[in-house]
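User: I'm putting together notes for a lab meeting next week and I want to include a structural view of one of the chains we've been expressing. I don't have a solved structure, so I'd like a prediction I can at least talk through. The sequence is below, exactly as it appears in our construct file.
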Amino acid sequence: MRKFLKISFALFTLVFTISALAQTAAEADGTKCTFLGETDSGKRIVYVFDCSGSILNIFDSVRHDILKSVDGLKPEQLFNIVCFQEQSFRAVDGKIMLSITPKNRRRACDFLDHMYVKGETNPIPGLEFAFKQKADLIYLLVDGDFNGPGNEAVVKFCKEKAGKAKINTIAFISKDNTDKREDMEFVKALKAITKNSGGKFRIVTEEDMGK
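Assistant: Thanks for the context. Below is the predicted structure for the 211-residue chain, given as structure tokens.
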């Protein structure tokens, strides 16, 4: 029994050490990225977020949290920010990924300051742009159904076009919403996108933002 416990403890120690070393390596090579309290790794990061009319109440908080995340990136990383609404999108730069410099941080801030919300939710044009930029980490932020193309169409598009990009999906849900969150159709769609790409899914409310 003692021998078994010693082996089990040794295996646990080995697994913990490997995990710690992997995390240290990710931080050392400049791939760490923190957004809304969650940390992941990526060198080419694109924030793709909903600018449809329904997100008005939390729009300022979303902008704040994106800029906070960008501020934490390292010189080895590249980024872009994509806002989608109706059948189109806008990006900080419509051609290339941006390096982490004071000038590009100001560009990102100015871009978000001049954005406004309108229309329906269709992320496909913005996601297609992110995929073409060869992003390896994408944050997809929405607050409801993809009422432009439909939830299933977006899931299918991401599965077929994402390539090596990992998509972390975030569902913004009002604290006053009494529906069962896990049963919401757009939540199911975001979970499917996450599963297919190897990313992470998270539900956040107003209370989770700005921290």
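A couple of points you could mention at the meeting. The first strand starts at residue 32 and ends at 35. The CA atoms of residues 10 and 205 lie 41 Å apart.

User: Perfect, that's what I needed.
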